[in-house]
């Protein structure tokens, strides 16, 4: 096995076992990688999201707003809080991916489910009488 094959295997493990949900798209917004855990967050089977376009999914109300769509339009990193159709609250950061000539070739986003954290904050505020 050569170095590139080892690097690919290592990268795949990093992506598959990351705590965050990861989406990678090409420059047109077509999803080329995502973890299967997005099924829980977005309520859509993995095979229905892979190879779909983030602009189309945003129009369908699946990613509203789509961080990757924002990154691809602006060409710079963005962070936002999003609530999914499954009532999960996510903090999402997106980054443009450029080649050695600084040409935009895609985007990557990292999402962390903060639903439980937000629920605990609300309970604490309710107990302390704060709003």
Automatic annotation (TrEMBL):
Domain PAS: 7-57
Domain PAC: start-end pairs: 74-126
SUPFAM superfamilies: PYP-like sensor domain (PAS domain) (SSF55785)
InterPro entries: PAS (IPR000014), PAS-assoc_C (IPR000700), PAS-like_dom_sf (IPR035965)
Protein name: PAS domain S-box protein
The organism of origin for this protein: Tigheibacillus halophilus
């Amino acid at each position: 096995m050569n170095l590139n094959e080892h690097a690919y295997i290592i990268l795949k493990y990093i992506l598959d076992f990351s705590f965050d949900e990861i989406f990678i798209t090409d420059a047109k917004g077509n999803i080329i990688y995502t973890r299967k855990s997005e099924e829980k967050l977005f309520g859509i089977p993995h095979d229905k999201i892979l190879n779909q376009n983030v602009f189309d999914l945003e129009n369908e109300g699946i990613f509203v707003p789509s961080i990757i769509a924002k990154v691809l339009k602006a060409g710079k990193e963005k962070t936002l809080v999003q609530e999914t159709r499954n009532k999960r609250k996510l903090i999402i950061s997106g980054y443009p991916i450029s080649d050695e000539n600084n040409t935009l070739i895609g985007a990557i986003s990292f999402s962390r489910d903060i639903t439980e954290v937000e629920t605990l904050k609300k309970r604490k505020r309710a107990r302390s009488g704060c709003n």
